[in-house]
Amino acid sequence: MRAVVKTGASREAFHNTGAWTSDGNGTFIHRDLPITVAFPKDDDGVSRTCVVEAVLESRGTQSALKNSLKKSLGKPLKQQTSMIWMVQIDNGVRGLQFFTDEKSEKPKVRLIATAF
Predict the structure, then answer these.
(1) Beta strands in the chain (DSSP E)
(2) Minimal CB count within 10 Å: which of 11, 20, 90, 105?
(3) Does residue 4 belong to any structural domain of this protein?
(4) How far apart, in whole angstroms, are the C-alpha atoms of residue 34 and residue 54?
(5) pTM of the full predicted structure?
(6) What is the reported pLDDT for 30?
(7) % of the chain at pLDDT higher than 90
């Protein structure tokens, strides 16, 4: 959530760490874990959104992640296939949307953070 701001997303956390590689199109792929991080551009060409996709080890891991998000961010707005939090941080309001996968043994989840 901290990587996205109204003026554009910061990719600094993904450079020079050795853990991430870039695909050259703005998506970062973790070297050891099934995680990708992308910063899609809005219609005006500015990236105000961060999309994290991951394959989790089990449904239990997904449940633990869901509970951790609820514990740290509070009660979410529940939608049919996702949960949404509006969070005030030091430099503005962020929306965080968490999409779960209730069908797979190794769930594919997605977190989308957006600056408002």
Answers:
(1) 20-22, 27-30, 35-38, 49-55, 77-78, 82-89, 92-99, 108-115
(2) 90
(3) no
(4) 6
(5) 0.90
(6) 95
(7) 70
In a domain, 44, yes or no: yes
Element (H, E) at 97: strand 92-99
From CA 8, how far away is CA 89, in angstroms rounded?
Answer: 16
Provide the residue type at 19 as one letter. Answer: A
pLDDT score for 15: 80
Tell me which residue range forms the domain holding 91. Answer: 11-115
Q: Does residue 12 surpass a pLDDT of 90?
A: no
Residue spans of alpha helices (H) in the chain? 59-73
CA distance 1 to 18: 21
The answer to whether residues 31 and 18 touch, using CB atoms and an 8 Å cutoff, is yes
Separation CA 74–CA 79 (nearest Å): 15
Q: Can you tell me the distance from the alpha carbon of 97 to that of 107, in angstroms, rounded to the nearest whole number? A: 16
Distance CA 21, CA 105 (A): 27
On whether residue 102 sits in a domain, the answer given is yes
Whether the CB-CB separation of 35 and 47 falls below 8 Å is answered with no
- Tokens 């514990």 belong to 71
Q: Is 66 helix (H, G, I), strand (E, B) or coil?
A: helix
